[in-house]
Amino acid sequence: QVKLVESGGGLVQAGGSLRLSCAASGRTFGNNAMGWFRQAPGKEREKVAAISGTGDITNYADAVKGRFNISRDKVETRIYLQMNSLKHEDTAIYFCTAGPNIRTWGYWGQGTQVTVSS
């Protein structure tokens, strides 16, 4: 059974940093794209960042470019999202996802709450 488990969320002041982690288990994710989405209250889920199976292709939402960085550890089948210069509008539940490429997602984690106080 495929399982994605996020961790690292919490409460942080504006301007601070957090590092989210997502551990994948249940199958070999070495060649799968993985990514992060987020959903704020009353808003639709939106893509934040994605990384290809090889790790050499990444993309980011315009709102987080220059502040967030996605990376992956293929040995541990884990991805990370380093979030710097956090803003109140980054407050959301962050979801880890995996799929065959950076545009198609089939598996989802339960999410981790990130709250940025202004």
Strand fraction equals over 45%
* Overall pLDDT score: 93
Low-confidence region ranges: none
Radius of gyration: 13 Å
Q: Bin the helical content.
A: under 10%
- Silhouette: globular
Question: What structural class do helix, strand and pairing data support?
Answer: mainly beta
- Helical stretch tally: 0
Please give the number of β-strands.
Answer: 11
In words, what does this structure look like?
- The chain is mainly beta.
- Helices cover 0% and strands 52% of the residues.
- It is built from no helices and eleven strands.
- The strands form two sheets. Strands 2, 4, 5, 6, 9, 10 and 11 form a seven-stranded mixed sheet that branches. Strands 1-3-8-7 form a four-stranded antiparallel sheet, with no helix packed on it.
- The radius of gyration is 13 Å and the shape is globular.
- It starts with a strand and ends with a strand.
Which keywords apply here?
0% helix; four-stranded antiparallel sheet; mainly beta
Chain-wise SSE layout:
Layout lengths: L2 E5 L2 E4 L4 E8 L7 E7 L6 E6 L6 E3 L7 E6 L4 E6 L8 E8 L7 E2 L3 E6 L1
Parallel strand pairs: 2-11
Antiparallel strand pairs: 1-3, 3-8, 4-5, 4-9, 5-6, 7-8, 9-10, 9-11
